[in-house]
Amino acid sequence: MSRLYPDAPRVGVSVLCHRNGRVLLIKRGKDPYKDHWSLPGGLVELGETLLEAAERELREETGVKARLGAPAETFDSIQRDADGSVRAHFILTVFCGAYRSGPPEPGDDAVALEWIEPDRLDDRLTTPGTPDRIRRLMAR
Predict the structure, then answer these.
(1) From the CB of residue 40, how many other CB atoms can be counted at a distance below 10 Å?
(2) To which protein family does this belong (predicted)?
């Protein structure tokens, strides 16, 4: 199942895990958006619910567990190359929740992680829309 130049959109999840007013972000280790800061997340596996995928991806990428509620937002992430061909297309559902347990450590696709205050997001290279999405969801 190719993530780059796919034959169909890929279904994924991301997690806004918060603690003491800060948000847990990972630095991506793979394309698309290698070296960009992002919410932890990844693709939904066959037979897995969106919530199960969100819990698994958060744990795999950060070692953390959170109290996740209902989906907070769903959006398209479409990246095109210079020729206009679709390089990547993800349909992502975002879950939000407070940190519950686990020592934060980068794992899986993450090369680094950090608890970041929402007002410091503009100083980072992030995946498209991430700072606005975090501020909007944290304001709820």
Answers:
(1) 28
(2) Belongs to the Nudix hydrolase family.
CA-closest candidate to residue 97, choices 64, 75, 74, 48: 64
| C-alpha dist (Å) from residue 133 to 8, 38, 58, 121 | 25, 11, 18, 11
Q: What is the pLDDT of residues 115-138, one digit of tens each?
A: 999 999 998 999 999 999 999 999
CATH number where 114 lies: 3.90.79.10
Phi and psi angles of residue 62, each rounded to the nearest 5 degrees, phi first? -135, -15
Asked whether the whole model's pTM tops 0.70, one would answer: yes
